[in-house]
Amino acid sequence: MTAFFRALSAELLKTKRTLTVWLTLLAPLSMMLLVLALYFQQGEQRAQQDDLWHMLIQTSLVLWSLLMLPLFVTLETGLLSALEHHNKTWKQLYALPVPRWAVYASKQVIALGLIGLSMIFLAAMTVGVGLLFRVIKPAWSFGAPIPWATLVQSVTLGYLASWLIVSLHLWVSARWPSFVVAMGVGIVTTVASVIVINSDWAKVYPWTLPGWVARGSLQGETFAVSLALGVVGGVAIALVGGWDVIRRDVL
After folding, report:
1. CA-atom Rg of the chain in angstroms
2. What is the C-alpha end-to-end distance of the chain, expressed in Å?
């Protein structure tokens, strides 16, 4: 474990003050600006609703999980691997007195940490938007108490369900040096998720799992299988992807 923590410390230093960190703030911010515009556009309709806190959480989290999160994961994992691909440092890393698995595992943990941080920012911004409406739109029902338990539960479950796509995209970005390949896979699978979300495959399609689980937790629907697939599948793909990447002699 000492080797892993050494590799993780080095990975943290490399990603510090890079675009990958700033994106954890900018991505959820762009989504909340979209939600703001949507609510202002539907002002009269929103004013007639009673449980606006619940609606705001559902709107921001489901839109994030279905539209932004898969592309965000693609970009973050692609940037993490590009640190090594563009600088040709994979060989140098594997020549160090640190096990190869520790190098890949550190990137996996950093990727999961960045996605988790972005979802924390999303939750905080969701509350901020609700409080803003409480001030500028007093006729709306944002004067009700903030449903912290609902917010934390839905964000946490959505994050856990995203483990599978994080592992998949990290594997792709680390396996193939081309950034175009990593982004192409992310774009194609995200576009497909827009169609899949309205079918029975949404419960098992990796790129719709976060949105399906988040929506299920908010609407009281069954999502246990989808959540298990996201978590267990994420761990399994992380192991398979790590084995595939570290066994190669040339990177």
Report:
1. 19
2. 25
* Helix (H) or strand (E) segment spanning residue 150: helix 148-161
Q: Mention every residue, 6+ apart, whose C-beta is less than 8 A from residue 149.
A: none
**Neighbour count for residue 210 (Cβ, 10 Å):** 33
Tokens of 144: 């009700």
**CB of 56 within 8 A of CB of 35?**
yes
Could you list the pLDDT tens digit for every one of the 251 residues in the chain? Answer: 788 888 888 888 888 878 889 999 999 999 999 988 888 887 666 656 667 898 899 999 989 998 899 999 999 999 998 888 777 777 777 777 788 888 899 999 999 999 999 999 999 999 999 999 888 888 777 878 899 999 999 999 999 999 999 999 999 999 888 888 999 999 999 999 888 888 888 899 999 999 999 989 988 888 899 999 999 999 999 999 989 888 876 54
Rounded to whole angstroms, the Cα distance separating 209 from 193 reads: 10
Per domain, the residue ranges of the chain are 2-246
Tokens 């040096």 belong to which residue? 177
Q: Answer for the pair 244, 168: CB distance below 8 angstroms, yes or no.
A: no
Per DSSP, the three-state class of 107 is helix
Q: Are 69 and 138 in contact (CB under 8 A)?
A: no
| Tokens matching residue 230 | 């996201």
DSSP letters spanning 163-184: HHHHHHHHHHHHH---HHHHHH
CA distance 236 to 240: 6
